[in-house]
Amino acid sequence: MELLKINSIKSNLKNPRFIKDYKFKKLVKSIKDFPEMLKIRPIVVNNNMVVLGGNMRLKACKEAGLKEVWVLKADNLTEQQQREFVVKDNVGFGEWDWDIFANEWDIDKLKEWGLDVPKFDIDENAEDFSDKINDGFRIEIELDSEEEQEKLYNNLINKGYICRLLTL
Question: N or C of the chain: less Cβ packing under 10 Å?
Fold first, then answer.
């Protein structure tokens, strides 16, 4: 691994991955706030200095005004392995445990760090909440009893929504 001038690294023009504007802005902010992460997770390049892993990070580093970035050369991969790496480096195999996030993490921090946290808007009298999803709203509901609160909480968790159970 080595620290190289950012203009010596070439974006991969055949990279099938892209990033939306609002997420790109979050990535730039993340790099500005925590640049040490770039050494822990360097940009991966081939012998020609073309990015195999970290194309969006490279773009964000340029936007953040960095002049140098940490690079790891994958100089022993075949053309086929390089193509495979480009895809596999961006595939998310796991899933998030939203219950742990809701109860153990600061949701606002997770959003700030770029995680897309599911949001919902529900009618507390509805039997089935699945048709009440409205991406873009986060609400808090106060119910009269612990029994009502627990029923609502369990219903939402079982449907995969993120929620935080607050005591009465």
Answer: C
